[in-house]
Amino acid sequence: DQQVKQNSPSLSVQEGRISILNCDYTNSMFDYFLWYKKYPAEGPTFLISISSIKDKNEDGRFTVFLNKSAKHLSLHIVPSQPGDSAVYFCAASLSGGYNKLIFGAGTRLAVHP
Amino acid sequence: NAGVTQTPKFRILKIGQSMTLQCAQDMNHNYMYWYRQDPGMGLKLIYYSVGAGITDKGEVPNGYNVSRSTTEDFPLRLELAAPSQTSVYFCASRSVQETQYFGPGTRLLVL
Q1: Which residue of B54, B99, B106, B107 is the best one to mutate when testing the A interface, meaning the one whose CB has the most A CBs within 10 A?
Q2: Which of B57, B63, B84, B105 is most buried by a 10 A CB count?
Q3: The pLDDT value given to residue A76
Q4: Confidence category of residue A110, pLDDT binned at 50, 70, 90
Q5: pLDDT at A1 over 90
Q6: Where is pLDDT greater, at A56 or A97?
Q7: Which positions in chain B have a beta carbon within 8 angstroms of at least one beta carbon in chain A?
Q8: A42-75 pLDDT, tens per residue?
Q9: DSSP annotation string for B34-86
Q10: Cross-chain residue pair A103–B105, CB shorter than 8 Å
């Protein structure tokens, strides 16, 4: 039973355009959401997060949107750069749960020059 | 700071062999975690620890054991390796206020 789903295994975007990565979740008790970025042969690195009390969080070129009623979040990267090419994981957690993260399967983003 | 370090980087095991995956962090983090990532899948939590001497099971603990005798180290033990344990293993740590920092991973192949 996948509680966090990333239904697009891959996404290809031209440099300078917007990349939109999507994530759906089933557990309405999740109250904290994160995006991690992973390059080959490296561990995931934290990118951006959002609390369930917000619907948007921005950090430079990266913005995460949360739609609680739809149990959906998305990561927008504007403008996309070739260095953004990586696998992006969506993760969710419960407060009081020792920050145990539930991960989606990941979306591989390829940004072409 | 070295952050989170994991050894070995890669290992091949025969079915039934045992091994310990090492994880160390130098950030004085109380919380540590072990995840596995199978091809095309997200990371799944195996075990976690909230401090020295305290460990608990995650989503997929069967076939693994952990110990936490110091704040810095959190080794993961496989007693009887099985092909289903072929995976990439990531260790992570965090302090109370921060997100999880991950190590570079150990790739394990069980044949």
Answers
A1: B99
A2: B105
A3: 98
A4: very high
A5: no
A6: A56
A7: 4, 31, 33, 35, 40-45, 48, 50, 56, 58, 90, 92, 94, 99-105
A8: 999 999 999 999 999 999 999 999 999 999 999 9
A9: EEEE-TTS-EEEEEEEEETTEEEE-S--TTEEE--SSSSB--EEESS--GGG-
A10: no
Token pair in block for residue A76: 């927008």
Average pLDDT over residues A73-100: 91
Q: Are B90 and B74 in contact (CB under 8 A)?
A: no
Residue to mutate among B98, B100, B101, B107, with most A CBs inside 10 A, is B100
Tokens 């990561």 label which residue?
Answer: A75
- Asked if the model's pLDDT at residue A98 lies above 70, the reply is no
Question: What share of chain B has pLDDT > 90, as a percent?
Answer: 88
| Residue B40: per-residue pLDDT | 84
The pair of structure tokens assigned to A43 is: 């561990």
Using an 8 Å Cβ cutoff, are B13 and B110 in contact?
yes
Whether B100 sits inside 8 A of A99 (CB atoms) is: yes
CA distance to A13, A98, B4, B71, B75, per residue, from B26 (Å) = 38, 20, 7, 9, 15
Q: Do B105 and A43 touch (CB under 8 A)?
A: yes
